[in-house]
Predict the structure.
Amino acid sequence: MRIPADKANRFIASPPETVRAILLYGPDGGLVRERANLLTGLIVEDPKDPFRIAEISVGEIREDAARLADEAAAIAFTGGRRVVRVRDATDVIAGPLSDFCETPAGDALVIIEAGNLTPRSKLRKAFEGADCAAAVPCYADEGKALRDVISETLGGSNIRVSQDAMAFLLDNLGSDRMVSRSELEKLRLYIGEGGEVSLDDAIACIGDSASMTLDDIALAAATGNIDRLTRLMDRGRREGLAAISILRAVARHFQRLQLVSGSIDEGSSVETAMKSLRPPVFFKQADIFRGQVRTWPTQRLGSAIESLLAAEVQCKTTGMPVDTICDQTLLRLGAIARVLGRKRR
């Protein structure tokens, strides 16, 4: 069965007993791991219990297609239901997993963790088409979902968040659920019980770590620093940043440039226009941002935003490699920025 994204949390909290295998997939690797851990905790109290939790690699399943069914049918030495987990799954093991979905063995809960899978994925189709299996998408937190994560994490310590600070957190978290949790936990300890998070507090705790790679990618693209952009994209891949998260972060940056540029066109000074942004431009990036405003005409910024939005649509609909779409789009923008910078000089 296919679980819609807006119903995923409810499903994970209480999956039907008839569901024997669950596929967790999507660009947010942290959310995939968090939901896998939550599902495991529903079955086994001790997450390190070697008798009731088994982990199988993709390679082991490829070498022995019956390995998954054998583990699922095994009886725990200490009694109780077991959990079988498979990480980093891809379509290369779609065959054995499809067979298991059709005729599940034993009573163990099988949890499959995967990255971003297209609608054409054989793995997704196997889980979406089976009555005793479920495919659960794990997309990056944004909007209300991200606000709920922030409120849940900080609310446990009765910590309030100012409006500017919340805007900053919403703009700088969300690409990875576990990274967001970690950064918010750091902020919770910094503020203490019953305190209030100001914008300065949020910047001090999160601004230099949670999203600096995304910020740096956006700055490099809008500046036209192709060498730095390429290095940062490679770094982002190693850190697990999803292509869509990168495209959205760069689009937000260009939208902020467009807001400032439009205000200047209407007669505002660059300083006044920049001060109106919420969250404000990070002070370490103010000079670079100011230079980009001078480099990019308002009309060009609009075209750049359209190309970023079109790239996101392509990532979701064409089945083409999302990293390739993302890289080509950003390198194209970087090349435009370099030409515009030369003209300004």
